Structure prediction request, 107 residues.
Amino acid sequence: MLASKQKKDVFGLKFTGEDIKQATWDARINLTTDEEDSLARQIENIFKQAEFLKESRLANVQGTYYPYMQRGTLREDITVPSLPREKVMFNAPDADDIFFHVPKIVE
Prediction:
């Protein structure tokens, strides 16, 4: 069990159970103690994998080379007629003449 005051030092970053509780509160999700412990272990594993990559010897590895010139892959802006309003609003569960009505999600 991750003690709330216990600092975990992984990849030069330190986090506690309180940090996880704060992150879950910020994300508006409720986790059980077991789920918080599992999340802490998963975060620890991610940091350990990143530490392994950091320690890899890549000094002699050359950068990526592209043998051809990169060109922009954006398409042309072409104006096309939009759908009629009636067709767009047809399946809307709650709408007036020009607006969709959606439930409030931010407190």
